[in-house]
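MODEL INPUT / OUTPUT PAIR
PAIR INDEX: 1
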Amino acid sequence: MSQSRSRPLPNDQDASGRMLGCEEQEAVLAALASGTLTSTKGSFVKQFEEAFAQQLGVAHAFACTSGTAAVHVALAALNFNPGGEVVTTSITDMGALTPMLALGLIPVFADVDPHTLNVTADRIRSAVSPRTCAILVTHLFGDPCEMEPILDLAEELNLPVIEDSCQAFGARYQDRLVGTFGRVGCFSLQQGKHITTGEGGIVVTDDAQLARRLFLHINKAWGYGDANPDHYFLALNYRMNELTGAVALAQLGKLKRSVEQRMERAQQLHQALADVPGLGLPMPLPGHHHSYWRYCLDVDEQEIPGGTNALADWLRDRGIACAPRYIQKPAFCCEVFQKQRTFGESRYPFTLAHADAVDYAEEKFVGTYEALNRVLVLPWNECLSAEDVEYIADAIQAGVKHLREES
């Protein structure tokens, strides 16, 4: 029998879990009243880009249509030849991978640390080959990767680093915001992110030459503002519109509060669950400041009978919409990789890959499978109250006790 409360927990898929209000409404009305909804002529997207760059402490920021678009633009701006390999993580959203294939690049997966679920320098090194052209790291769930050794490796191998910071607004490593370490940082404004426009993205860099190419790749390579503009190379239209830019600008003003709320509630849950046997908590490593896009439990099946699935069933029955495994399988197990379904029946760009690059043998990804078997992702957003977190904590404690007593 369900034990859920009469009032559901805040949900970031609707207004209950999102800080959307009069500021966004007024901004959208102002954009509509202007009659200018394209960012090539309007002001809201430009204001958002300038404010985001200032807040992040970077020289250049360009808005686009999604986090996927941000990754696509970043890779395209670096202008790699087809067949180049991009070393990345095995636990990530497909939006960080399909742009590689669309550009004729080969995603090469590195294993992850089974406790943080992030890639590390050592694991990246094991996936590098003479064909490697870039490293793309994902700061999963808002927990920063260990960037110092990754950057040292990248410098040693003369490889650019791209940061997928889509889940990590406000996260810091060694007191520096993520997204500012690599050649390019990519962010998402999708529905469930720290701030949202439903869909949207932004890319950042300190490199002026690269900034020019990022801008062009968002604008069909048309040289807006040039003396004699032309379409200089192959590129798509990834421009953000003014309505989205208006919401983004209003949301940006709430980012600091959103991150602080998530971190404060995470600390509350840390304290409540600190002594629960069989649970590992997402405690940041020294020098890391986790911004908690999600709160993830590490469930030890030896201590908690039934593991993540049993505990998830208990929590769902009490109105806590958690997700065991985060993604049901490593990214390389999806059909696009297993069956190489890309352009017609060509299998391109997999036809350019060497055997090791597309070897997805399970023994190469021990950390990945261990991590997915143990992780339980809890719903998390800036609108959770202390009472909400207390309810979640009580349900977890009761669930663990029940499962241990029933075994």
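PAIR INDEX: 2
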Amino acid sequence: MSSRKRSLLAASGAHAVHDGLTDLIYVLLPIWQAQFAISYAMIGLLRASYSGVMASFQLLASRLAKRWGRERMLIGGTALAGVAYLIAGQAGGLATLLVALMLGGLGASTQHPLASSLVTDAYEPGGGVKEALSQYNFAGDIGKTLIPGAVGLLLVVVSWQTSVTLIGLLGLAAALLLWWLIPSSQPAHAGGAVKAAKAHAGRAGSVGGLRALLATGTLDSTVRMGFLTFLPFLLKSKGAGTAGIGVAMSLLFVGGAFGKLLCGYLGARIGMMKTVWATESATSLCIVAAVFLPLAGVMVMLPLLGLALNGTSSVLYGAVPELAAPGKREQAFALFYTGTIGAGALSPVLFGRVGDVMGVPVALLSLAALLLLTLPLSWRVQKSL
């Protein structure tokens, strides 16, 4: 296997495991709410404790990788995420659970900036960076589909503590696999920056375009994370059980996985703006429909909703290298991921409060309306491209 393929496989594997561990929380939230008797706002805080720490430390992770090495940081972060789930599986109270989720977010902070730059550095010399990033993003949603779905089924026969402990062991096994898989001859971190500078020679990047892209990604992530937080409770109110919620999340993430793969290629054909307008408009309409449809209708619609909900991100990721200034591509990736994941961390807290005061349906309709702000922002990004 070539070094390029090993790099893509390692990055994709890391993305699948980390995204699966991150989104498993959505399946566990209703269980934790029942066990610890907590409000929607506290549910949002639990979700934010993981994603907030993950967002906050991504820029630091990219800097530490220059000193300690990208391989060590990525492997260590994956192992730490696994340990965090082992701790969560033994949690007897809310405080221990909160600490475990924060540790998990710290480990997850290494994945997005380092794995993205690993793929970009590996494929830039021979071309095909956008296609490789689409495959990398696709792998993340495969993890979102398999891990929450598997735990949803496990919860039928074993306790949530046992299920979470097994997932922690999966994280440790993934770290060992990365240690074996990442090629030792991968391009040096500094070498990737030099290649990026050469590839971007003659252009200064677009600060305004990058800001508009960050704003677009921030709103997209705000709505996506808010919707995912409330979806299990919406399904529960319509009569779904624990296993049904796990299956529903898997259906959503199956659609999301193909959405990321499809929209990455679609964006290369018809342009970023047209793709974003199509996916974001469809997402807004589907969220509104999910509020009013019965359970069976929502379940049927979830793959389509997942395709639109997650597909936008592939188009936005692919635009980051084009808008980054010479030699600052990895910093641009880290900044983009920090903004989008940070917004996703705050969204459950803010809209959780809306859910407490006005109800889950109102919170979801508010998210659907907020998403429409991405349409003029994507037009601004397209002008810079």
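PAIR 2 NOTE: The longest helix spans residues 3-36.
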